[in-house]
Amino acid sequence: MRLNRKMNSPRFWSPTARVLGVIALFLTVPIAVGAVAVALRTRTVGTNLVTAAPVVAATIALLSLAVAAASTTANWQRGKRAATIDAWHTWSSDSLAHRKTVTRLIGTGSLTAAQGKALVDETVLPALQEPVSAEEQRSLAEAIRSTLNGLERLAVGVEMGVLDLTTLRRLGGTTITYCFERWEQYVLNRRNAENPAVAFEFAFVELEGLVQRLKSQSLLKRARAIDQAYVTARLRRH
User: Fold this and answer.
1) Which residues lie below 8 Å from residue 71, measured CB to CB, with a gap of 6+?
2) What pLDDT shows up at residue 99?
3) Phi and psi for 163 in degrees, rounded to 5?
4) Contact (Cβ atoms closer than 8 angstroms) between residue 135 and residue 180
5) Cα distance between residue 68 and residue 60, in whole Å
6) Which of 25, 47, 52 has the alpha carbon at shortest distance from 36?
């Protein structure tokens, strides 16, 4: 409830909702002034009311329409953000055990090309400090595949407009990027596998696109921060 009340604030409205609100404000003022001017030109109170009533009614209707549109847009954006928070929480909880399995078996480093190929082809996993059994290797491959599948679903949600990119970046942009880059060799070998039973040319393409967008958004935010810091420093000198 506290989160919903906080997000009702215009500070959390989408850019579209804010624009509609400003338009409504600027349209209401001249219309209201026009209504007063029309009323002042007439000679009797009764005539004033009759003349001004349609203008006032139109003003109220226009304002109501603009507010309703802004409210609808804000509610839709708020729902989208809430859905993103729920989706991220679900993925984070469901994938925790899998991510721990991967770290336990191969550590925190990135897969090599040979390791990615071995996991896809189900051959002996090379270059590990501690050899893993065949059962552990199957668990490892399943953990990686399941975790990436969950992230792929989040990426599809963002692409379809169901989930909010900015909210997802703030919640887990670093984690999403880290997981993809850490296991990228598994993804590449899935796409180029010789065995048609496991090969899939478009494996995790939505996730890859999401990672690129997250990186671009982070770089843009960083660039804006640098520009702002530069402007602030210049102003202080003068």
Assistant:
1) 17
2) 96
3) -115, 155
4) no
5) 12
6) 52
Instruction: Give Cβ neighbours of residue 18 (< 8 Å, ≥ 6 apart).
Output: 10, 70
Report the alpha-carbon distance of residue 164 to residue 170 in Å, rounded: 10
Splitting the chain (238 residues) into consecutive groups of 10 residues, what average pLDDT does each group show?
50 57 62 59 54 60 60 76 96 96 92 94 84 92 97 96 94 95 96 90 95 80 58 62
135: its two tokens: 């059962």
List, as one string, the DSSP characters of the chain.
-HHHHHHTSGGGS-HHHHHHHHHHHHHHHHHHHHHHHHHHHSSSHHHHHHHHHHHHHHHHHHHHHHHHHHHHHHHHHHHHHHHHHHHHHHHHHHHHHHHHHHHHHH-SSPPPHHHHHHHHHT-PPPS-SS---HHHHHHHHHHHHHHHHHHHHHHHHHHTTSS-HHHHHHHHHHHHHHHHHHTHHHHHHHHT-SSTTT--TTTTHHHHHHHHHHHHHHHHHHHHHHHHHHHHHHHHH-
Question: CA nearest 111: which of 183, 46, 63?
Answer: 183
Give the type of residue at 52: A
Angle between helix 184-191 and 113-121 (nearest 10): 50
Q: Are 188 and 156 in contact (CB under 8 A)?
A: no
pTM: 0.67
